[in-house]
Amino acid sequence: MQSMTNASASTIDMSRKLPRRRLGPLAMLLFWLSRRLLKREAKCSSDHIAATGTEDRYRQWRQQQLQQQLADHFDITQLRGKDILDFGCGTGELSHMLAGHGGRRVAGVDISSEAIAKATQHVTKDNHTALSTPTFMHADDHKCIPLEDNSTDLICAFDVLEHIPDIDAVCRQWHRVLHHHGRVWIWWSPWRGPFGHHLTSLIPIPWIHLCLPQKLIFTVCAAIYDDPTFMPRKWDMDPGTGQIKPNKWHHVESFEPFLNRLTKRSFELSVNQAGLKVLRCEVHGFRGAVLRRLGALLRTIPWLGDCFVSYYVYELVKP
Q: In the beta sheet, which residues pair with residue 277?
């Protein structure tokens, strides 16, 4: 999920004006509430903001998050001596981690050529002390993983499942490249979760994507981005110029294809149709005893189940 970063005054164009007249009453209310929440988060989360203020600091923060996801939910001793695929590897932080825990051969694959280029650069920059060095591959199409049949012991897919347009095709590809009894480890935030919209750096309000029209949401995103008090995040900055990127939100019309609206039920159906089997599914809801009990009760309602899930942890196997 996107997070707030630190931005100096020099990176903010103070001449930018908020187009208030283009906002209707509901959009103006959403804009005002979002600004209040962002200001409060900036005051309360200074350590987190500083940690994601530069490319290097963001990468360190990202490594910490992935290490926690990996160590808290999976047996890392099973990584030793395995041939591993980091599916949707991004800039390669998890791939290095998997190699560091003893992976015999770690391959990272991503459809972003820019991310693969950065991942490859990190291989030469990092002081790599693992038993193996990760390799990275660009895939033109997520429907075709560039690996041979039955060539992989383990696939890791962290923070990626919600971004895959064709889950059926990917599950079939996982089945194809896995060895007999090969496994898939998944950490996934569902679409219907409170912040499944992935807009917390602009509108940190839960469930807005389930309650409000997309056009209104993106109009408010554009207004906040244009607001002179908005603090750009790392992903909002042009690495070449060091300046804030043009406001893309004026042209965004849909959450898709960036987010696929995947549900637990539809995902497990794709898994079964591909010939994979669910070994384990962990449901992680809200913090606090009362909220946990309330969430557990509400998750028994079929359509509402995913709405009260922070993230899922899955372990699949190829029988």
A: 317
